[in-house]
Design brief:
Blueprint lengths: L4 H7 L4 H6 L3 H16 L9 H13 L6 H10 L4 H17 L1 H5 L3 H9 L6 H14 L6 H5 L2 H10 L3 H12 L8 H15 L4 H14 L3 H8 L17 H18 L2 H4 L10 H6 L5 H8 L5 H15 L21
């Protein structure tokens, strides 16, 4: 263990009394020795700090040695811990998974199961950290199928607990996973909750919810459930130029996916009916003001927003299934007749 400057001075026995007696070259020499020794002294290592743990582990991995830190943390998670301790352990595990690729890859399905069991903890803080840890592990291909098994539980948490941090963590995890077909029934049940998160005032949660909905809009068996989902009367405020560019871009991508889906031959094969407060009516109904919002976004300061607004306009004007026809595309509705 290193010692601080005061200890170094003590070891050299340089005290005020000595310095006071020393004169000329002797005093300068003693002072030089003290400073040189102090520079060599290192501050004590705080092994309890997650940052120090990560530094030590990375140094060991760099020299081809397993630090054992990730395994130690996972073992400690199995012991009975209070809410704060479990949250801190999970947070440290997440750091280690991102930083120590070899040790993370050496983990097992039982480790994923252990982390997943933390989703049942009564404390939201523990649930959030467990979601973050699963998100970290989902970057390792061999764990993705195992993590998928927790998809239904994650959707349940998102739809039953109104906590923006939990929404962000859960949606980030889902957006990093290929969602299997067996999850679709649960997705239908939580669609209203996803739409509420999209219309909330938490930008990061809104962005993540929109990304997930954009992905789901490409699933033929989920498209109607999304379009018929009830929305607030001011839904189109999401397309106002005053919204953050990151959110505007995602909302425009979502609108484009919906437009493409509803114009596909597969969707046209059925006569669908929508409720008056549905997303379909807000975006594509006869009284929708979407066209006005899109035209105002064509001159948005951010280029990616401009481009995406143009893509939505094109998808509304020229349905994808008409693109291969020799005749020129005609407007599919009265959006831009003015």
């Amino acid at each position: 263990m290193g010692v601080g400057i005061p200890e170094c001075l003590a070891q050299l026995d340089i005290r005020k009394s000595v310095v006071g007696l020393a004169t000329g070259a002797g005093a300068i020499y003693l002072l030089y020795k003290a400073i040189k020794a102090a520079i060599r002294c290192q501050p004590p290592i705080c092994t309890a700090s997650p940052i120090c743990i990560a530094r030590l582990a990375i140094e060991r991995e760099r020299h081809g040695r397993d630090s054992g830190e990730l395994r130690r943390l996972l073992n400690s998670l199995e012991c009975k811990q209070d809410e704060y301790a479990k949250s801190m352990i999970l947070h440290s595990i997440t750091r280690c998974v991102y930083l120590l690729e070899a040790e993370a890859s050496a983990c097992t399905a039982d480790d994923i199961r252990l982390v997943g069991s933390m989703l049942d903890d009564k404390a939201n803080s523990v649930k959030i950290q467990a979601l973050n840890t699963l998100k970290a592990f989902s970057g390792i291909r061999k764990f993705r199928l195992k993590i998928q098994e927790h998809s239904i539980k994650v959707l349940e948490l998102i739809s039953t607990i109104w906590d923006s941090e939990l929404h962000i963590a859960g949606l980030r995890l889902l957006n990093n996973l290929p969602l299997p077909d067996f999850v679709h029934p649960q997705l239908r049940r939580v669609m209203p909750a996803l739409m509420e998160i999209l219309q909330s005032d938490y930008i990061l949660a809104q962005v993540q919810a929109t990304r997930l909905l954009s992905h789901l809009a490409q699933k033929n068996d989920l498209l109607y459930d999304i379009l018929n989902c009830q929305v607030h009367s001011n839904f189109l405020s999401l397309f106002q130029s005053s919204q953050p560019g990151s959110l505007l871009f995602e909302v425009l991508v979502f609108a484009e996916r919906l437009s493409e889906g509803r114009n596909s031959p597969h969707y046209h094969a059925v006569q669908w009916h929508y409720n008056e407060q549905s997303l379909h009516e807000a975006l594509f109904g006869e009284e929708s003001r979407l066209a006005d919002r899109l035209l105002s976004l064509v001159i948005h300061p951010e280029e990616e927003v401009q481009i995406q607004a143009c893509k939505v306009i094109v998808s509304l004007q020229c349905p994808p299934d008409l693109g291969a026809r020799p005749s020129s595309c005609q407007p599919s509705s009265s959006y831009f007749t003015n």
